[in-house]
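Here's what a typical entry looks like (HTH lysR-type domain-containing protein):
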Amino acid sequence: MHMDLTLYKTLLEVGKWQNYTKASEKLGYAQSSVTSQIQKLEIEYGVEIFERIDKKMRPTPAGEILLRYAAKILKLYEESKINVAGQTTGSFMIGTHETTLFSYMLPPFLGAFKKCFPNITITINELLENDTFRALKAGECDLGFIVDRELSDPDLLFRKIQEEEFVIVAAPDHPLAMKSSIVPEDLNGSEILMSPSGGRCRKLFETMLRKHNVHYTLTYEINSYETIKKCAMYGLGLCLLPKTTVASETQNGQLAILPLNYPNFKLTVQLCYHAKRQLSVPMKNFIQLMCETIPHEPLFLAQSNIAQPL
């Protein structure tokens, strides 16, 4: 049987009044139409739905069961209209290689999103740096969170969220922390902490060090901003980190930002997604909320190839 909700609505009305004439009046149908609809249901289910006993019409045992199902079907239908239109349930996945920075940025507005969409689950999937674009194009994640130069790709849309400043930090008693101003050459001979090779933060740091012919000792390679910070606090070396991630430690005196006179330690925080992807209502609201919370520029469509690494 082709799903016809009208039949179930008619069934419930007849069940309510237990009278074809009364039901037809309430529905605005001819009585013959109401009778015909009930007969269609009886043929489909192969049972008698109503019976007459002592001139009274009442549901049969099978009819009682069908009435309960009809009520559930119509209730689910109404719920589906609300949920499909508003997309108030479901989930989406964000892929990123910058889970630490994202964890610092996310909490301030995630609560506001949850108030509007309490039944939406957000999964944050940690990816290798070069996997975010591949995952977006393959449909393995819905949104990508990246920290890089402003990038472009013909298959992706990018939303600039903010510029993130990177700073060199060290223990407060480090000799360079005592100076009022330093230049890159002052880092000669320093012990330095870095993330593993290939990370954007490390590339940014290494580019500056090479440009100014700075010789240094790589003391530790650590794949965790938090661990790098702890090592720096204990005087194990200098490190370059997003300013957002060291705000608390620099404010309470656990770390010091070196007063380096160097203007290019900035990258762009961006959200991206497939250009042909139909964004759900929650995803659109998530992007809008994030961009309203943090200064941003308008949506832009990439026109050229992906920018090459620094």
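The chain has two domains: 5-84, 87-310.

More examples are in the samples folder.
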